[in-house]
Write the structure tokens for this entry.
Amino acid sequence: MRPPLGIVGAGRVGNALARLLAAQGWPVVAVTSRTPAHARTLAGAVGADAVPDAAAVLARAELTLFTVPDDAIAPLASELAEAAVPGRAAVHTSGALGAEALAPLAERGVRVGSLHPAYPFAGGETPGLGRVFFAVEAPGLELRQVLLEVTAALGGQPILIPAGGKAQYHAALAIASNYAVTLFAEAERLLTGLGIGRETADDVLNGLLAGVTANLRERGVPDALTGPLSRADVGTVRLHVRALRAAGPELAALYVRLALRTLPLVRARGTDTGPLEQLLEEESANAPDGT
Ligand SMILES: NC(=O)c1ccc[n+]([C@@H]2O[C@H](COP(=O)([O-])OP(=O)(O)OC[C@H]3O[C@@H](n4cnc5c(N)ncnc54)[C@H](OP(=O)(O)O)[C@@H]3O)[C@@H](O)[C@H]2O)c1
């Protein structure tokens, strides 16, 4: 069963999901967005009509995807309660919020749920979503079945998140993906601080990260861990902390904190972490800000 789909929010996720589903032959019938030109562009690409507002999408689509910012979901659901068509389905794509964000629609007989692709949509063309997991959440069995079908049509894998668990689920993904970008930016700053060009610095780091993700995929935790901590190379860790302290004390403190969080992985590899612990505690105590 492939119910006609509507999109509210022609941003990164709305574009990616609508285009990929349309390419799989899933009917996309209506698109709206805050900026009408964005709705028109997406509608044109997927053979849908651009409509003036979300109420018009709800009126036409049997399954409406709310691909708007998280903070816009509940207010939109409240505004739309009057336009709700009982028996139709409305689903948002937030990772952190549950189906309850659409409660005003559920109270009017709309079947509600959420479908979160665990993938970083940064804009531009999205490659296929094979291997990507989709957190599927729908209290009703019939809608859950439809969302499993959407996931399968996109080539993804479903994962069911226990009720009340989406914030923790999404925090986990944010740590792994968003903070990888933060750490990349810090590493890039250190390399360019040595006079290395930004493009070269990025190439160095991207090559390294490609190896890390391959190791994680093939070996998992803790065996994917490499570097001085994995070998308990205390002298090298000391050199790192001193160099970072010269570059910026906050970064040195972050390094020490992350190293302390890494020690259980080092121990799990069967390495004695006693000397490392001693060094990291000394460095914490010696830090100018006490961290
Ligand atoms: N980006 C990701 O990697 C990712 C991954 C998984 C899930 N998600 C989730 O997917 C949802 C959308 O994220 P995104 O990254 O695609 O955001 P985005 O690129 O900022 O797109 C949001 C879209 O919603 C439109 N919009 C905002 N308020 C609206 C309103 N009141 N009515 C109609 N349209 C409105 C915006 O309008 P205009 O552009 O037309 O002005 C924009 O096109 C969020 O819940 C997010 O948590 C994101």
